[in-house]
Fold each of these.
Amino acid sequence: ISTFIVLLSVVLVFSTSLFLASRAIKPIKTSWEKQMAFIADASHELRTPLAVVNSNLEIVMENENETIESQMKWLNNIQSELERMKKLVDDLLFLARADAEDEMPKEYFDLSSLVHKIFDEFTPLCQKKDIEFLLDTKDNIIFYGNEFRIKQLITILLDNAIKYTGEEGKVELKLESHTSTVQLSVSDTGEGIPKEHIDKIFDRFYRVDKSRSRNHGGAGLGLAIAKCIVNEHKGNINVSSVVSEGTKFTVSLPYKAPQN
Ligand code: ADP
């Protein structure tokens, strides 16, 4: 009987440790799988522009007796694909740093002025697309954060709003301040996002319509980056959208007025 009890205890201890080990390994396995998927997606996104550069370069090299002027079409294609790749590599580096939990340096800056500046920068693009562009902001909001990244966040949201809104649509950038939060919102009257995609649009490389987004030039990293920036400022980002009516992204960030 005592041998049986010893044996039973050994089996029990062994199976419990096996169970605990598999539970401990699960998050590591999930994180590893996520990393592998990220690398696969990144490689795929980099391969596409590389293939375009390669094929255009081949044409240029085949026409070795042609003038540079006559080859401009192919050279322009190469240039725009290289720009796309540069943006992609910058975005990937940003996400890698965010994963490594590199803290963003922060200081007080005038958020109202920044919003005005961004509004001025986007006005010509909206005029070109015949989009009505509106700004609603309070002045003198001094915010503690990383100015460069907050600019990147607003730029991503505006870029998308303009990208997914057709001619004669409307885009609005709004900045409000409350006692302990500032609220930034970007709304548009564009194509909207179908309900079943809403939960996934902040995932890396996620695009609602892959073929269309590629024509627009996006790799599906913009909103993932936007979310990282919001998290780094301890805020939150929400989206509400109705197909064919429009989309509104709202960012809430904790706010503490500077003490003089
Ligand atoms: P992308 O580079 O493709 O724009 P994002 O991460 O910025 O990538 O956005 C992910 C997806 O969310 C987009 O492919 C698009 O389908 C959808 N999306 C984002 N913003 C809007 C918007 N304002 N209106 C409609 N769809 C949007």
Amino acid sequence: VGEIDIKDVVRIFENPDSKGEDIVALNKLSLIVQPGKFVSLIGPSGCGKSTLLRLIAGLDIPNEGEIFLDGNKIVKPSYERGFAFQAANLFPWLTIRENIAFGLRARHEYKKKKDDVDEYINLVGLKGFEKAYPHQVSGGMCQRASLARALVGHPKVLLLDEPLGALDAFTRMNMQDELLRIWEEHKMTMIMVTHDVDEAIYLSDQVVVMSPRPAKIEKIIDIDLSRP
Ligand code: ADP
Ligand code: ADP
């Protein structure tokens, strides 16, 4: 499970400059992501990568076309599809731990899965910072909290928008290996936007290269998975 089927998706934004032409971010884009694959999306800035990820998350709706998860049309966000944001998007009035546990509480699963929260706090290296508020820790730590928040609900699909972008090189390398470990353990479908081609090749078994706006799939590169 965890197949994503993107069918002829069009997303057009109104131009913030009222005299400007509408912005066609995605024009009839189609892509199938096989269950359990780790797919990276790369392409020039502004080509529509985040837009595509937000549509898969159900945070935005296409003007035309449809997206399916295991045959079910995506119409709104769901915990089946965890999303780790580039800008972390934590609630500033909640502690790191409360942020990570937020989805579980909303689903009334917190009591049952309390230990999972601690497991993921450890996994992303935030032990000792549970009671801090987002503004009290670094940007990289907020990104790691965002990752833990997406993972703790055991989603079928994990959507990652430059999840490691704000990390220093050392933490980044560790987190790359953690991501691989999590992926191999949970067998979830991963779709990651990154600007780092080496990272895309190291982590994913398929690299989807997008062309400049309106985004088309330029090519799909299968990576030989003979990882060390
Ligand atoms: P990428 O993630 O590849 O950098 P985005 O998906 O963020 O690209 O953006 C694709 C295009 O759509 C850009 O030209 C961007 O300015 C535009 N865009 C994205 N979101 C909006 C929005 N809410 N309103 C207007 N334009 C938008
Ligand atoms: P990141 O790589 O996540 O951006 P930094 O490089 O800013 O993190 O921080 C490196 C280390 O410094 C952290 O792992 C943490 O141990 C410590 N640190 C960062 N922010 C704080 C803080 N607000 N209070 C105490 N220690 C901190």
